[in-house]
Amino acid sequence: MTHAHAATAVIALGSNLGDRQATLEHAVTALDALPDSSILAVSSWHGTVALTVDGLDPDRPAYLNGVALLQTRLDPYTLLDAMRAIETANGRERDERWGDRTLDLDLIALDALEIDSEVLQVPHPRAHERDFVLAPWLEVQPDAELPHHGPIAALLARLREMPNPEAAP
After folding, report:
1. Residue 87 in contact with residue 78, Cβ under 8 Å?
2. Which of 104, 116, 130, 143 is catalytic?
């Protein structure tokens, strides 16, 4: 199913296994190849400490993270299914929540759309507290706003001012 008008999807990409950069670039190419969709911009890749259920874990393989802007006419659920298929095609195994992964794709926002269903929450419920989402997003869409949270530039600045007891010196 497609929408009459194109929306801009903000998609966060992450990888901490294998050839991370090659995997991320394959994923961008696959997103760009989706029906009625095209990549508008891709951030640089940011190296980040692995985030686990228990917090940041410097002993786990480090992540490369980035954000892509995808102009698409796909409806959000079709887009989500396509993103899952791209993860699977790149060797993603969903055996551990927040475990190491070859590829992680998250739909962060889709214009100002709001969805809260069992399979999909848009905007992403934790995006506002994740530097590795906000920093690359700011690169490609400096004036972006996260619904209910405000400008991402301000969110990122606030995040970076907060003391983080888990962060390594």
Report:
1. no
2. 104
